[in-house]
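Operator note (shift B, R.M.): manual run for UPF0349 protein FG382_17260 requested after the automated queue skipped it. Running by hand, logging everything below so the morning shift can see what happened. Input copied straight from the record, untouched. If output looks odd, do not overwrite the archive copy; leave it for review.
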Amino acid sequence: MNPMVEFCISNLANGSQEAFDILEQDPNLDVLEYGCLSHCSLCSETLLAIVNGDVVEGDSPEDLVKKIYAYIEENPLF
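Run finished. Output pasted below as returned.
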């Protein structure tokens, strides 16, 4: 079972697309996009992804990728 990283399509348009593209290349992650993740106020203010059910935020696409990998390392599935 791979870690799941979910993105809101609105957040992708607001700047997280680059992070999505980077993470999508990792065969050890399941990277998905949805119309909405129900975090609209946060989504409009920052770059974010839902990683295994928890919100991870970043200041830039590169920062978001770094924080997603750090979250996965600190919170293993098994």
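Quick read of the result: The chain has one domain: 4-74. Residues 9-24 form the longest helix (16 residues).
Leaving this for review. - R.M.
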